[in-house]
Amino acid sequence: MHTPEFRIHFVAFVRVLTLMAFMVATKGWNAAADAQIDEGVSSGDLMVHAGKNISFVAANSRKERCKLITRVIFILNITKVGEYACEFACNLVIVDIPDGIESIGKCAFLCCSSLTTVSFLTTLRLIGYCAFQYCSSLENVDLLHTNLEELGQAAFSFCEELKSMTMPDSLRRGGRHVFHGCSKLVPSNINIKDADAVLAHLRSQQLL
Ligand SMILES: *[C@@H]1O[C@H](CO)[C@@H](O)[C@H](O)[C@H]1NC(C)=O
Ligand SMILES: *[C@@H]1O[C@H](CO)[C@@H](O)[C@H](O)[C@H]1NC(C)=O
């Protein structure tokens, strides 16, 4: 159920004997990776994410280790990127959100200040509260080919370099301050209170 590429990266931080045991029992892959997330973070520049929510406190306590992360891979068959999953990963440049992911949890990519490229696929429906806040290298976000319905409060706030954004027609709700502090995207400090405002605003900016 996992791609060869995933297995190659997984091997990098799981003990050989453990690995062999899992190769026998394929269904062990998910559970094992789940338990290894923090180990993955501590052992180098790769993070494996299995959809778990990280607490605010836990995210803060692993802040220094997260700064080392340059690559995140997502375990197959998960539908959510967990809350605070990649917070403080300030050396992360590219993220491929895989197909199957329906929601990106709150603060998932908060303070990923080197992030320039995020690819989103069709299954995506929700981007949570502050999910990409302070992603200050993000210049273009293309959500056109997703089924995005909701953008959480402050989801892209303080993305200071954000210049263009494409949205799908499926968008129905936008929280407040979605683009607060994105001075290059829109006239600065816009508060967007509801979907109509989001849509009208984006249309007026010819972003839709
Ligand atoms: C993560 O938290 C959200 C919001 O509290 C909750 O809806 C979701 O089920 C949680 N996910 C997991 C995997 O615990
Ligand atoms: C993962 O997804 C594949 C393809 O949709 C499916 O065949 C498989 O049963 C799933 N595995 C788990 C553990 O959900």
TrEMBL record:
Coiled coil start-end: none
Cleavable signal peptide: 1-28
Pfam families: LRR_5
Top-rank taxon: Eukaryota
Keyword terms: Signal
Alphabetized SUPFAM superfamilies for the sequence: L domain-like
InterPro entries (UniProt xref): LRR_5, LRR_dom_sf, Surface_bspA-like
Record protein name field: Uncharacterized protein
